[in-house]
Amino acid sequence: MIVVQRVVVRWGAHSRGATQADLRRAIPEAYELPEIPVDEGCVVHEVTADEAVGYRVDSRTACGMTALERVSLHAGLTDDGLVVQRLPGWDVYPASRRVTRLFTLRAGEVGRYRANFRFLGTTCPCAPYWYYEAWTLHIAYAVPDPVVFPGATADHDVDHRVHLYGGRSRRSRKQSA
After folding, report:
1. Cis amide linkage into residue 150, ω under 30° from 0
2. How far apart are CA 30 and CA 7, in angstroms?
3. Which of 72, 95, 104, 150 would give a disulfide with 30, using CB separation of 3.0 to 4.6 Å?
């Protein structure tokens, strides 16, 4: 079974200061899973904390490969295990216009993918506005356990976070055996 949890923290350009950054850092990167139907092949638990509503956490669960694509992921089985890929998105910076292989999970393993993005909130050139998102995705190729993600050490860890306001990137790719 594929179990995914995507935690999204969203904020506007007016919240770029240190005080707001401290509030965002206090939001957990993982949560306990809600009750999950075990007869599904793929379950996605999406958690959103939006600055527009005071970082109140909203949570929803969906099943199936379409739900996986809605969180910008694709997964497929090979002889080596479950290959997890990041799909292209609508982000403006850093622009991701191609499929990116993240890692291959073997049965029982957990992977983590972290990234952040800047989005253009409108297509109208007369009133453009920016908003930002920080993502933490946990992917387990295992039987769901409500506490599989909080406090877990990822078997594979990919960090594609960048400095959204300019500066050097901290992009890395670390995997443990």
Report:
1. no
2. 7
3. 150
55/49 Cα distance (integer angstroms): 4
Q: What is the pLDDT along the chain (177 residues), one digit of tens a residue?
A: 999 999 999 998 888 777 888 889 999 999 999 988 778 899 999 999 999 999 999 999 999 999 999 999 999 999 999 999 999 876 666 567 789 999 999 999 999 999 988 887 766 666 667 889 999 999 999 988 888 999 889 999 999 988 766 655 555 555 554
3-state secondary structure of 132: strand
Output the pTM of the full model: 0.86
Buried b (16+ CB within 10 A) or exposed e, 57-83: eeeebbeeeebbeebbbebeeeeeebe
Burial status of residue 53 (CB atoms within 10 A of its CB: 0-12, 13-18, 19 or more) = exposed
Question: What's the one-letter identity of residue 72?
Answer: S
